[in-house]
Amino acid sequence: MTTMTGISIKRKPDPITLSDEAAAKVTNLLAQEGNDALALRVAVRPGGCSGYSYEMFFDSETADDDIVREFGNVKVVVDAASAELLSGSSLEYSDGLQGAGFHISNPNASRTCGCGSSFS
């Protein structure tokens, strides 16, 4: 909680955090885009084989109710509805031979599908 001249401002919790590896990979991808105004938007949408699916894309716009956090040089934007479903999640990145790519670990998911991109 932050206080400013006697006014208490409660900061919303981070809906998602980035591992160092994920932040480094996103930084690299953003550099390739060549647009300093871009942020990584992480969202949850209805659909997928388990009920919800994750979306990640670069976005240059933010809404008033978006939650914006910075991890190193990476600005991450999450809409308010997705933030509730992502609360406590982490975005990981691995570069190994098996399972290379981004993966979201979500403690709120009661089940996930085999592809790992949808949950309920």
Structure description:
The chain has helices spanning 20-33, 80-86, and strands at 2-4, 7-9, 16-18, 39-46, 52-59, 67-71, 74-78, 89-94, 101-105, 118-119. Strand 1 (2-4) and strand 2 form a beta hairpin. It has 120 residues and is an alpha+beta fold. The protein is globular and about 35 Å long. It has a single domain (13-96), classed as HesB-like domain (Hypothetical Protein Aq_1857, Chain: A, Sandwich), CATH 2.60.300.12. It has a five-stranded mixed beta sheet.
Condensed summary:
The protein is built from two helices and ten strands, in the order βββαββββαβββ. With 120 residues, the protein is of the alpha+beta class. The chain has one domain (13-96): HesB-like domain (Hypothetical Protein Aq_1857, Chain: A), CATH 2.60.300.
List keywords for this structure.
Hypothetical Protein Aq_1857, Chain: A; about 120 residues; 5-stranded mixed beta sheet; disordered C terminus
SSE blueprint and pairings:
Blueprint (H helix, E strand, L loop, with lengths): L1 E3 L2 E3 L6 E3 L1 H14 L5 E8 L5 E8 L7 E5 L2 E5 L1 H7 L2 E6 L6 E5 L12 E2 L1
Parallel strand pairs: 3-8, 4-7
Antiparallel strand pairs: 1-2, 4-5, 5-10, 6-7, 8-9
